[in-house]
Amino acid sequence: MLLDVQNLTITFNTKTGPLTAVRNLSFQMEMGETLGVVGESGCGKSITNLAIMGLLPPQAVTSATHLSLEGKNLLSLNEREWQCLRGKDVAMIFQDPMSALNPCYSVGDQLIETLLVHAEMSRSDAALESLNLMEQVGIPAPKERLKAYPHELSGGMAQRVMIAMAISSNPKLLIADEPTTALDVTIQDQILRLLKDIQEKRQMSLMLVTHDLGVVAQNTDRIQVMYAGEVVEAGLTQDVIHHSTHPYTFGLLAGHPDARKSGERNHKSRLPSIQGMVPNLRQRPKGCQFHPRCSFAQDTCRLEAPQLTVTPGISRATRCYYPLNRGEGRTDQC
Amino acid sequence: MLKAVLKKILNLIPTLLGVSLLAFLLIRLVPGDPVMLLLGERGADPQMYTEMKRNMGLDRPMYEQYFTFLGNIFQGDFGHSIVSKRAVLTEFFDRFPATLELGIMAMTFAITLGIPFGIIAAIKRNSFFDFTLMGAGLVGYSMPIFWWGLMLIIVFSVKLGWTPVSGRIDVLYEVDKVTGLLLIDSWWSEDGGFAAFKSALSHLILPALAMGTIPLAVVARMTRSSMLEVLGEDYIRTARAKGLPYARVVIVHALRNALVPIITILGLLFGSIITGAILTEMIFSWPGIGKWIVFSINARDYPVIQGGVMMIASLVILTNAIVDILYLWANPRMRH
Lengths: 334, 336
Ligand SMILES: Nc1ncnc2c1ncn2[C@@H]1O[C@H](COP(=O)(O)OP(=O)(O)OP(=O)(O)O)[C@@H](O)[C@H]1O
Ligand code: SF4
Ligand SMILES: [Mg+2]
Description:
The structure holds 2 protein chains of 2 kinds.
Chain A: E1 3-14, E2 17-29, E3 34-38, H1 45-53, E4 60-63, E5 66-69, E6 72-73, H2 79-85, E7 90-93, H3 97-100, H4 107-118, H5 123-136, H6 142-147, H7 155-167, E8 173-177, H8 185-202, E9 205-209, H9 213-219, E10 222-227, E11 230-236, H10 237-242, H11 247-254, H12 299-303, E12 309-310, E13 316-318, E14 324-325, E15 329-330
Parallel strand pairs in A: 3-9, 3-10, 7-8, 8-9
Antiparallel strand pairs in A: 1-2, 1-4, 1-5, 5-6, 10-11, 11-13, 12-13, 14-15
Helix pairs in contact in A: 4-5, 5-7, 7-8
Chain B: H1 2-29, H2 34-39, H3 46-55, H4 62-74, H5 88-123, H6 128-141, H7 145-159, H8 182-185, H9 194-231, H10 234-241, H11 246-283, H12 289-298, H13 302-330
Residues 12, 14, 19, 21, 39, 41-47, 57, 281 of chain A line the site of adenosine-5'-triphosphate.
């Protein structure tokens, strides 16, 4: 197992009191697999990733019963140990590549710097290696581009540079936090293909965070659906897409019919709107977090929070008292 | 980059022409007749008055006077002082090193303390250090130089006796003028060496402190706010995600970006340093440009004022141009 997260809870101390943004989140990732993470804005996808990198702001309090990467306990790392881990074992790329690169330094400088933090090598070797990386991520005229400043690149090129930087130390896990959201539609596919390509070549694990169900349907092995800082459904991608059991996932898919026809991506449809609003994380509803918006809610749902349980017969976990079956209606109560 | 620099330099020409016109006009707008002042209280017979006026070229029409002034400047002639009869340029360069030394010291003080203070305040935002520093900054920013200079003299020179009250160096030391900067020249003085240097430094400290306080407050506040803004940027998160040590993230990635507005502010401060110099030099009787100009204005010494103002303004404009070039260096996005 590469990544093991057990009962991760992230609470922000804010001026108006504590806010628990992620609650008892548990999930695992195997070597070489691709995990898709979907969920509406604010459900805690990015801060979960930041917790894995030890990059949460100081006002965030993290707790977990277990948090490890390759068997290494992340809960006991000090700042220096985090620095050794960041960029080397886990790397990250972000939503807006143009603002994620430092405008004051050339692409080459930023790549070389990344190489030099984690490996003992001379500057000239690092320069050669950075050229090599630029070629690997498919940047034309890499030699000239190394001298370019970020503002001279297009969004797609900048994201390729970010990818080159992220893979420079051969990380075991690459976290891509909405890597294509800020890019032109035509570029999105290229970047996703590049990510998949690199992932396969390097046997890297990839966590793909996105709003776009089409993207996960096509590119991931497993899916994890998050709602209000909790996993509500997780399983093999095709299972979840074609036979969703959680009403929230079902709702997401209902507004996104194309996701089911895997292979046909519809760029225009992001997460569709389900009736109602994401709960206020300061005053979470009692019971199931989704119940104010769920059309199947019963009294039990309003009183007691459901646990993430494996539905019999299907290799998938659902956090719902009344899971739907095969995406067509409700099962008998069991 | 080179092309941008050349363009900047060409742009200076119209500005300098404008300044020359202002320097010329301003002094003529101040009431008072230089000829009368020169002839003294007793007055003079009208014939002597007209003759003197003609000698000084003041009888000719304004525009003619201006073009003569401008033409002479192009030949490197800034005129002669009415009072001392010496060339304005010579007088200027006699006094300029004193002001330069004071200005450099004041700005060094402001920059070397202001930038680190601002950085620490930003990193330790809302901490005790941050609050204290920003409070002190507000006080420093609104400090009247005149009052502040006098307070420094009262405390450090009069009460504690640590520093001399006025002048640039003890009269004991005979220092030959090489650079004009006493901190440097004093090392070669026959009877001085280290002792002369110490004397020069102790004379310099208080005026530099008085003159540098406002710039210090401005630089510290600017650095803090600029750093706070930059530290929230995406590329800082990237730099941290790469595994860089925090010190490197702050200095290499954040500070470099935060410098852009700091440099702009520094450019403006260099301009305002002249105002500071005038006040400081008056309080500490520092024999520099500020004191010279005030003296010349009181004497209605037209050539000195117009020539001196022209020189000062050119220097300010030149420093601003240098700052602009630094700005290009700090901000690659501006180069095209
Ligand atoms: N610095 C912070 N202080 C207080 N609350 C925060 C802070 N950062 C994040 N949060 C809270 O954590 C929640 C989750 O944020 P996160 O950025 O992980 O969402 P996300 O799922 O990545 O959303 P998006 O799809 O918009 O990127 C937000 O709803 C927000 O309320
Ligand atoms: S537990 Fe109840 S409210 Fe929650 S999703 Fe299932 S049916 Fe809806
Ligand atoms: Mg996010």
